[in-house]
Design goal:
single chain; alpha/beta; Rossmann fold; Elongation Factor Tu (Ef-tu), domain 3; 2 domains; 6-stranded parallel β-sheet; about 30% helix; about 25% strand; elongated
């Protein structure tokens, strides 16, 4: 159950277990928080809810920040809804950003949610100027009748797994490592937009997607799988992320060639799942050289 921008939750969702966070990417660290919170709810025989914020606060405070998200809002909602009894997506706006940490605890956690257990990471910050922390949260437990549970971070090679690390891996083309830390393959969802149909003329028609606010992967060629409501199951394919220097392109695009597929998907939504980085984007002398390289790229999948 998704509740957008409101805390007017049903009484049955009061005195619940609540996990709070941005949850961008919902990586293995996030999954650990969600799993432990869910287990606590089952043990106590109460509901489990998630409180998250949109836009991601860092993007609200930095309006010029683009190409930052690991997942779209839709993907985030879908995944969280599978894990919790209810999900609150609070609009992060100027009014909310000016809420003091004391009022966040009093008005949100106590009065609106009336939470019984709060699950957060140890670096959880909240309230105006991010002055609130987990120690302050704990100091209000008795007054507002809740319990704070700080989950231990998920580590890989002694490093804490974070959305920041995963963004860095994706930007370097290290998709396999990023996918491991995510706990599933990273993907971009979008609506197929019109292109100049050059791919069709060289025997490799493509579906073109705008990256919008997704993190920018390393420019280059990738092995991908494609899912859509327009066909059953998954289709294999090859994708290029970049500017298309052979054609003097200037707009960043994700171009996807779906193997053995001829149906027109213009204006249809597709989900492109990144499996492996094949090579960096490069400029070719002519179309024939490009066609030869695409053939080589496909042979490596």
């Amino acid at each position: 159950m998704i509740i957008n921008n409101k805390f007017n939750i049903q009484n049955k969702f009061k005195r619940s277990v609540i996990a709070i966070g941005n949850f961008d990417g919902i990586h293995r660290g996030h999954q650990k928080v969600l799993k432990e919170a869910s287990m606590k709810a089952k043990h106590k025989k109460i509901n489990f809810g998630v409180l998250s914020f949109e836009p991601i606060p860092v993007m609200f405070f930095n309006k010029k920040l683009k190409y930052h998200r690991l997942h779209s809002i839709k993907q985030k909602k879908k995944y969280l809804n599978q894990k919790a009894d209810f999900v609150i997506i609070k609009k992060f706006d100027k009014t909310f950003s000016n809420l003091s940490y004391k009022n966040f605890i009093k008005k949100i956690i106590f009065q609106k949610l009336n939470a019984k257990y709060i699950f957060v990471s140890k670096n959880f910050k909240y309230g105006k100027n991010r002055l609130g922390n987990v120690n302050l949260l704990k100091s209000y437990e008795k007054k507002y009748n809740f319990k704070t549970i700080i989950t231990k971070p998920f580590k890989r090679n002694e490093k804490i797994v974070s959305s920041t690390i995963i963004r860095s891996l994706i930007s370097k083309g290290q998709i396999s490592k990023a996918n491991y830390l995510l706990g599933r393959s990273w993907s971009i969802e979008g609506k197929v937009m019109p292109g100049n149909k050059r791919g069709r003329t060289i025997g490799y028609p493509t579906c073109n997607l705008d990256l919008k606010n997704y993190i920018k992967p390393k420019y280059g060629v990738y092995s991908v799988d494609i899912f859509s409501n327009s066909f059953k199951g998954k289709k294999g394919g090859i994708a290029n992320v970049g500017l298309r220097p052979t054609f003097q392109g200037k707009k960043l695009l994700l171009e996807v060639n779906i193997f053995n597929f001829k149906k027109n998907l213009y204006k249809k939504k597709i989900n492109v799942v990144f499996k492996k980085f094949i090579r960096p984007e490069k400029k070719f002398k002519n179309i024939n050289d490009l066609k030869k390289q695409i053939k080589k790229d496909i042979s490596k999948i």
